Amino acid sequence: MFGTGKKQDGGETAAKDSERGLTLMKLSLPPIILVVLVVLVCGYVAYLQYAGLVKKAQQVQHVADAEKMAALLGGRLIALGDQVAMQAKADRALAVAVGAADREALRLFEKSLETYFPEAERIRVVLPTDTDPDMSVRPPIGYACLDLARQAEAGTERPPLEMHLHGSEFAHLDLVRPVMGEGAVIASLMVSFSPSKMKVWLKELALESGYVELQQGWDGPVLGIIGSAGLKSETPTHRAMISGSSWQLSYWATDGIGMTEAKKLGFLATFGVAALVIAAIMFFYALFASSTIKRELRGMAEFMLESSRGKRFHSYPVKMVEVEQALVMMEPVLRQVKPDEDIKGKAEQGDEGVTDMMFMDFGEITVEESEAEIPPQGDTDKS
Predict the structure, then answer these.
(1) Nearest residue to 180 (alpha-carbon basis) of 155, 197, 146, 200
(2) Neighbours of 7 (CB within 10 A)
């Protein structure tokens, strides 16, 4: 600082030094970038873990939704099957008609059940001896219908509700329950419904999103659909069996942006906002620190200049403890420095007496010997 040199324009020099040299803002950029990157990386890792948990929860929810719809349909079918089974209890007149194979009496009994099943397209008591299809009724009784009757007569399990003649004008739903007489199966009661009843059941699912198909068997025909067919892919989200039938429900969940995706994006956005806030705080702190250091340096330069003129201060014109400690160490030296009378004018030519002072010509500065005794350097007593 104290040396000889040619005075330069303070403003231009400061600007050039700021461009080519280090500043506090430049030094602050690496840690700001590093902190932001650390926050974003940590946020991304946390997001992956959170997204994995959300995905698992979403899959569980999709399975639960499919099973819930299957249970609702199954409940409808079981209730309908119980209603048919209740009417299949043979009284004495029915038992006599079945034993005698009285077709006229059986038709009268079937007619009486229309009150209980107003939507039925056909009600038929199938005898164990009925082994040939009956194409004279509508809908016709084919071999698939007779197979259900044989299952009911076996008494081992309840025959499932099935769709027969699907795709034809005689398509219908068959529900069969055994007719019990004196503790034994004596016949089968078959109640047939229109396929439109299945559409009513599907509408009762109140599907809000996704796509549902009802199939008979694993790879059987599609009996009914509901929802957006555009969501269908090769593999459904979940398949659920429907109790009381040979059907299965295939469910494709919505892949669009929903509440789950919004939660994941919101979780990730939280870290992004946090990174921006931290970067902003560090940036403004760097501006504050830079302004503080500049102010302290001005105070330090003022102190050094005035002290070299012999002026004494009651307190140091700085606020930072570190700068004050530096001035405490420099003050004894500065008291011994006496500038030329012209130095004040030279210093005042700069911006606030600070910038040009750093480049002023100190070639004429002289150092006076202090009245205090200067301790000898090294060993002076050689005797």
Answers:
(1) 155
(2) 13
In the block, tokens 């016709």 appear at: 140
* 186 phi/psi in degrees, rounded to 5: -110, -15
Q: Where are the beta strands (DSSP E) in 219-263?
A: 222-227, 238-241, 247-252
- Which helix (H) or strand (E) covers residue 298, if one does? helix 259-308
Side chain identity at residue 30, one-letter code: P
Closest CA to 21 of 29, 31, 32, 13: 13
Q: What is the DSSP string of 83-129?
A: HHHHHTB--HHHHHHHHHT-HHHHHHHHHHGGGT-TTEEEEEEEPTT
- Rounded to 10 degrees, the C-alpha dihedral 293/294/299/305 comes to 120
Q: Which amino acid is at 119?
A: E
User: In whole angstroms, what is the distance from residue 220 CA to residue 215 CA?
Assistant: 6
Q: For residue 287, what pLDDT is reported?
A: 85
Angle at 44 between CA 43 and CA 45, to 5 degrees: 90
Backbone phi and psi for residue 75, each to the nearest 5 degrees, phi listed first: -65, -40
| CB neighbour class for 289 (10 Å; exposed up to 12, middle 13-18, buried from 19) | middle
Residue environment code for 328-338, b if the CB has 16+ CB neighbours within 10 A, otherwise e: eeeeeebeebe
Q: Which of 187, 165, 162 is nearest to 177 (CA)?
A: 187
Tell me: cis bond preceding 118? Omega within 30 of 0 counts: no
At residue 55's C-alpha, the angle toward residues 50 and 61, to 5°, is 125
Q: CB count, 10 Å around CB of 95?
A: 16
| Location of structure tokens 């769709």 | 163
| Per-run averaged pLDDT (10 residues), the chain, 383 residues | 44 53 73 82 78 79 91 92 89 88 93 93 93 92 94 86 91 93 88 91 86 87 88 89 91 69 71 82 84 83 74 71 78 64 51 44 43 43 40
